[in-house]
Amino acid sequence: MGHKVHPYGFRLGIIKPWLAKWYADRDYATLLQEDMKIRQLVDRQLSNASVSQVEIERGINHVTVTVHSAKPGIVIGKGGANVEMLRTAVGKLTNKKVKLEIKEILQPELDGMLVAQNVAGQLERRIAFRKAIKQSIQRTIKAGAKGVKIQVSGRLGGSEMSRTEWDKEGRIPLGTLRADISYGVVHARTTYGRIGVKAWVYRGEQLGERPGSARTEPREARRPARTRARTAAASTGRASATAVAERPASEAAAAPAEAAPSAPEQVEATATTAAPAPAARRTSTRSTAKAAKPAAEEQNGQGEPKAAAKAKAKSEPKAEAKAAEAKSEPKAEAKAEEK
Measured between alpha carbons, how far is 134 from 141 in angstroms, rounded to an integer? Predict the structure, then answer.
């Protein structure tokens, strides 16, 4: 069997508040019966006022009844006549002072109870159930809902065999506690029997310390670990590049020139790195090394071409040897004369 839980009761104390706010020890059963009678009375007298829910709050000597309606004008009536009638009727059910409050529902398309009431009203007027369901879903999604599901059960279309039909658009995460889901059940009383209508409306995620304190959009789906690693590496590289680009010019000028390798060392490092490269890339590496030679020769420490520097380095040992021989010749002649 299915283990279905009421979406509102499942979220009580997490993202949904209690609809009855009072505490009692001995008189609990009596006060609970009073609450049920008050709710039935409001539903009966305001059946055409699109009432979504009724909140009851009890104090020491007073009872506060809050009616959430999409048509507050009908609840109030001309000159507040309907409100006075309702307050008098509720006062007869309890011995305490009654305070009546009316709150308007700004978006009735996003309220599950009102959506179910709308579909049930169309079924009572003998409108095709599939047409009624699709129109309600379209209006709810257009109003900004993230998902909606409507289900009808009974003798649909007057058939002798009862069945269940439903339609859905978007997503309805019933198992997610932070999901703000509005749920409503209404019975459509037709000539061929009673048809039950259920509606689920997903209005996004609700987060915060208190129920109803904040509402946010659904979180994005988690990315694979590889994608997260690549994104982190790319962001780190961008951050380092930005830091280098924003480095002050004074710091760059103050940096010692000796820290950077000389041009010949760069050419040798390039050649060494390019040596183990594949055969397909040797041509490009050699061309790069050849292109770098003129620049390296221009940037030589003494401003001389590299070839001239090499020739000079080779000729220096020979010149030193000749000078040493020239110095030793007079000494040899002097020794010969002495002998």
Answer: 11
Tell how strand 62-69 and strand 97-104 pair up: parallel
Per-residue DSSP letter, 16: B
Q: One digit per residue, pLDDT tens: the chain, 339 residues?
A: 788 999 999 999 999 999 999 999 999 999 999 999 999 999 999 999 999 999 999 999 999 999 999 999 999 999 899 999 999 999 999 989 999 999 999 999 999 999 999 999 999 999 999 999 999 999 999 999 999 999 999 999 999 999 999 999 999 999 999 999 999 999 999 999 999 999 999 999 987 655 544 444 455 555 666 776 777 777 777 666 666 555 555 555 555 444 445 544 554 544 455 444 444 444 444 554 444 455 444 444 444 455 555 655 565 666 666 666 666 665 666 666 675
Give the pair of three-digit tokens for residue 46: 């305001």
CB 99 within 8 A of CB 62: yes
Note if the pTM is more than 0.70. no
237 touches 244 (CB < 8 A): no
